[in-house]
């Protein structure tokens, strides 16, 4: 461990409701609360290290953090570099200015010629590049993918008129709408069966097993469901059918 008795984790704290900072600078969100509970059941304290999303896996590989706790979507490219303990399944949303003035509804056709803001290194960037490949195959103009350091930057790009839409998670979209009123519209949702997980170093079975066991205890206690409700994350985002029979799924 980076520090004895402490679970040091990397996070990109600009992605509510999973991880963000309060006005007073404290870390908050679903992931923050969950990892504190898991670490406590492991007899450990926690220390958060905030960084840009695209620096998280390098920080883990460089042993500057013990785990990545940052709503990280699981895909083949990442699973080749790290191991995962999955804990949620969510989707992606495209948010436009209120009223959807560019009439973005069909994915990917309506993205042609548009500017879409994404978080650099996040899965939305990968999806938009894949959709660009599809647009080109259909003989349509590609979109401009505007890769920015944080989710907040992507949102501000739309607010300022520099982008036509920004990509975020489905729970993140709900949080944004709750905080901003009619400033944004959910134009489209997609990829609704994507798992997210806590990342550990490749081959670090001890840490992965300890976290998986702690997660199973957390689910069995009912606190996992309570945390979903606290952050208004839909119950169908759960990977666990029942807190009475749950077992944390293997990563990958």
UniProtKB/TrEMBL annotation:
Residues 6-234 form the Solute-binding protein family 3/N-terminal domain. The keyword Signal applies. It is found in: Cell envelope. Signal peptide: none annotated. The keyword Calcium does not apply. Coiled coil: none annotated. GO terms for cellular component: cell envelope. InterPro entries: SBP_3_CS, Solute-binding_3/MltF_N. Keywords: Signal. It holds the Pfam family SBP_bac_3. Its main location: other. Belongs to the bacterial solute-binding protein 3 family. This is ABC transporter substrate-binding protein. It comes from Amycolatopsis acidicola.
């Amino acid at each position: 461990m980076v520090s004895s008795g402490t679970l040091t984790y990397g996070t990109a704290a600009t992605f509510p409701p999973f991880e963000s900072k309060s006005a007073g600078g404290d870390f908050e969100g679903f992931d923050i609360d969950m990892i504190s509970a898991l670490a406590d059941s492991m007899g450990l304290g926690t220390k958060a290290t905030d960084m840009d999303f695209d620096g998280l896996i390098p920080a883990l590989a460089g042993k500057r953090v013990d785990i990545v706790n940052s709503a990280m979507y699981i895909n083949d490219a990442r699973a080749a570099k790290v191991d995962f303990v999955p804990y949620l399944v969510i989707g992606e949303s495209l948010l436009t200015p209120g009223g959807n003035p560019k009439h973005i509804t069909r994915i990917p056709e309506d993205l042609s010629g548009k500017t879409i803001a994404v978080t650099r290194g996040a899965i939305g960037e990968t999806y938009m590049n894949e959709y660009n490949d599809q647009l080109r195959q259909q003989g349509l103009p590609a979109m401009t993918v505007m890769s920015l350091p944080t989710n907040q930057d992507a949102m501000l790009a739309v607010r300022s008129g520099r982008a036509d839409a920004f990509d975020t998670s489905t729970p993140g979209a709900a949080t944004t709408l709750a905080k901003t009123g009619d400033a944004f519209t959910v134009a489209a949702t997609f990829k609704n069966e994507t798992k997210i997980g806590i990342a550990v170093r490749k081959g670090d079975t001890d840490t992965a097993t300890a976290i998986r066991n702690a997660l199973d205890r957390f689910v069995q206690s009912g606190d996992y469901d309570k945390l979903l409700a606290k952050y208004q994350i839909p119950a169908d985002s759960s990977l666990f059918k029942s807190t009475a029979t749950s077992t944390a799924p293997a990563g990958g």
